[in-house]
Amino acid sequence: MHKTKLSSSPIIGKAFGWDRVDHVLLDMDGTLLDRHFDNVFFEEELPRRYAAKEGLGWEEARRRLFAMYRATEGNLSWTDLPYWSRLLGIDVVGLTREFQHLIEFHPDAVEFLTHLRAQGKRVHVVTNAHEDGVAIKVARTGIDRYVDGIINAFQVGYLKMRAEYWPSCQRLIGFEPARSLYIDDDEACLAAAQAYGIGYLYHRAKSSSQLPPQPSSRFPSIETFHELMKR
Questions:
Q1: Residue 203 C-alpha from the chain's centroid
Q2: Sequence-ordered strand ranges (E) for the chain
């Protein structure tokens, strides 16, 4: 799905040092995994299948689907794959498996996760994705081997851009907000985390290998994790 972009004056991040961080919270799609898969899937392939099913041109099918995406943004149904399967009459989970060969780590992701483990940090993936999509991506990448846990939004009950998400997520994981680092390519999710008091926030500017970096106007941005590893 599309990531939300907020416009605001630039904010300078708090002085960052690994000695100030106990827990690292990492978004999955676009931050650890290449968003190229999601962009191709939701913006090209799903509209193509929907067009064929409904007898529409691809552009018209895409226009209709994007309107449906926008209508659910911010709610759990936005990323609920079974919901989209029912709504569209298409096996969206099966289609995800069909294109799973496009699911890949960002080139620096495993190195960063290994770096965090070597420093003794607790690491959790926090994702808006539905558990069915998470299971496919875990099977494809083995991302679960590098972290202490993966929390999907359906376990929490809200998406990460919602204020209600963060206290519920904290209860599940047990992190101290002021001593936590959170990295995401979605500014709305970062804003909600900031309001809750997460101590260190970074925006992942290079979310897709096929697109140029898109730095944040609101949060400190990094193109690669190497920028944090050398701190």
A1: 11
A2: 23-26, 122-127, 149-152, 180-184, 200-204, 221-222
Q: What is the rounded distance in angstroms from the CA atom of residue 47 to the CA atom of residue 63? A: 9
Per-residue pLDDT, averaged over 81-90, amounts to 97
Contacts of 183 by beta carbon, 8 Å cutoff, 6+ apart: 24, 25, 26, 27, 31, 201, 202, 203, 204, 222
Q: Which regions of the chain carry the CATH code 3.40.50.1000?
A: 18-34+105-229
CB 118 within 8 A of CB 112: no
* Tokens at 135, concatenated: 């299971």
- Taking only the tens place, the pLDDT of each residue in 159-195 is 999 999 999 999 999 999 999 999 999 999 999 999 9
What's the pTM value of the predicted model, to 2 decimals?
0.93
The burial class, CB within 10 Å (0-12 / 13-18 / 19+), for 86 is exposed
Mean pLDDT of 103-127: 98
Q: Top-level CATH class of 18-34+105-229?
A: alpha beta
pLDDT at 57 over 70: yes
Q: Is 55 left (phi over 0), alpha (psi -120 to 50) or beta?
A: left
Phi and psi at 152, nearest 5°, equal -95, 160
